[in-house]
Design brief:
- The protein is an all-alpha fold and 204 residues long.
- The protein has 3 domains: 80 residues, Up-down Bundle (Four Helix Bundle (Hemerythrin (Met), subunit A)); 33 residues; 43 residues.
- Helix content is 74%, strand content 0%.
- The chain has 10 helices and no strands.
- The relative contact order is 0.05.
Length: 204
């Protein structure tokens, strides 16, 4: 008997690994973002096979529908030249190799000391609780109770990263008039608005 779930698992996994490799090795940045979107779709398929339909929908709606498309538009608007990217990659190749090697060693050590809990197989076979709680409700109860502080901390980290990205990409150009909110709030209405009485029929 053909096991369709196993076939879909190997199909999604193979396409996911291939597309993830193409994201890193693609010479065209637009193609890299498109491969990233393909990787997200296949990861969503794996979530559906694991009976985690909420995570699959979240991955498609948030990451594919918002983040990846935003990356695509940003890359297309920046029009980054590959010569500059290759030059920068050569300059930081040694540091990148050290960081990548350290990460690879950590992953190998983690896989070597990996121990699977016996309860994990029971959770896989019965992902929905006996009380009839759905995956979405169970995930919400877990995040907003046991991991509430970690969830809020992750939001703060993302906020700091967003502010840092805005500060790093901000460029002050000469000859451009910028809004000064402090001067606008401190302005006196009497200095900016004048009332002129015009006699009827005299015009301006």
């Amino acid at each position: 008997m053909i096991n369709i779930a196993a076939i879909l698992f190997y199909l999604f996994s193979g396409v996911l690994l291939s597309s993830a490799m193409m994201v890193v090795t693609a010479r065209n940045t637009v193609h890299g973002v498109l491969f990233l979107i393909l990787a997200f779709f296949n990861a969503a398929g794996l979530f559906i096979l694991a009976n985690a339909e909420f995570l699959a929908l979240l991955l498609v709606v948030v990451y594919v529908g918002a983040v990846a498309v935003l990356f695509l538009f940003v890359v297309m608007m920046l029009n980054v030249e590959m010569g500059n990217i290759q030059k920068t990659a050569r300059e930081y190749s040694v540091a990148g190799g050290l960081i990548g090697g350290t990460l690879a060693v950590e992953l190998i050590l983690m896989l070597y000391s990996w121990n699977t809990s016996p309860e994990a197989f029971e959770m896989i076979s019965s992902p929905i609780s006996k009380d009839g709680v759905t995956n979405t409700q169970a995930l919400g109860n877990l995040i907003y109770t046991h991991y509430a502080l970690i969830f809020q901390a992750s939001g703060i980290i993302l906020l700091i990263a967003m502010v840092g990205a805005i500060v790093l990409t901000l460029r002050h150009r000469e000859g451009i008039r910028r809004q000064k909110i402090g001067d606008q709030l401190a302005r006196d209405p009497k200095d900016s608005v004048s009332l002129v009485d015009i006699s009827p029929g005299s015009g301006i």
